[in-house]
Structure to design on (232 residues):
């Protein structure tokens, strides 16, 4: 049996996000990705954890609101050098996508699953690189404790990015190659794009935190060249 969702334990500042997910927002990532990647049906194959942290007593977006992000080591065979939410393959012992997301986050970042409150899930979406159905799990932690690259073969950087930095227009971009473009975010010297960029853009919009920004498409290759991603 999968780990249960507990939306009743969400802080008030995350309630608008959960309500928007329940009111049709869960299908947005799949719809946004469908023009680029044929979306498969069937069982979930992998899961990722979109983990928010911040003041549990706040009623509106607190100053310390932040999201957990990892950098995949450039030595990886797939998605090398990319920014990603913690996550990976769903094993039979996980019980389902929530259990898998929590286990993978622990293995990759040292995040104690007992500190995490799973809140909601988005619809599973098929990714372009691995062609797997990935289930995003939205969660909250009032106090994450220390996070770090717990599996250095997979990740070489693990950190929280402040939500207010992510929605800063200076840190947002629409980047692409040829006819494809998608949302991207600067997290310090790292560039978050692709599947993770789409998920991040969706939850920030559903949460009601987005500020106007320049959506004119730019060159993804040029942005990656000046980033610290070291993608192949």
């Amino acid at each position: 049996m999968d780990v249960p969702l507990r939306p009743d334990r969400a802080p008030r500042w995350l309630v608008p996000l959960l309500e928007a997910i329940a009111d049709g927002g869960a299908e947005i990532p799949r719809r946004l990705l469908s023009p680029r990647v044929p979306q498969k049906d069937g069982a979930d194959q992998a899961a990722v954890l979109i983990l928010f942290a911040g003041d549990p007593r706040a009623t509106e977006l607190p100053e310390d609101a932040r999201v957990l992000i990892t950098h995949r080591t450039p030595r990886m065979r797939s998605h090398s050098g990319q920014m990603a939410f913690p996550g990976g393959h769903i094993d039979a012992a996980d019980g389902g996508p929530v259990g898998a997301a929590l286990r993978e986050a622990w293995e990759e970042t040292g995040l104690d699953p007992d500190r995490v409150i799973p809140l909601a899930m988005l619809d599973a979406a098929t990714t372009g690189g691995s062609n797997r159905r990935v289930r995003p799990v939205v969660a909250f932690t009032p106090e994450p404790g220390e996070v770090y690259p717990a599996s250095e073969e997979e990740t070489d950087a693990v950190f929280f990015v402040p939500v207010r930095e992510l929605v800063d227009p200076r840190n947002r971009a629409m980047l692409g190659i040829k006819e494809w473009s998608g949302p991207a975010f600067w997290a310090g010297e790292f560039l978050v794009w692709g599947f993770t960029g789409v998920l991040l853009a969706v939850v920030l919009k559903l949460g009601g935190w987005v500020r106007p920004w320049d959506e004119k498409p730019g060159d993804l290759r040029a942005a990656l060249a000046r980033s610290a991603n070291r993608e192949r």
Notes: The longest helix spans residues 97-109. The first strand starts at residue 46 and ends at 53.
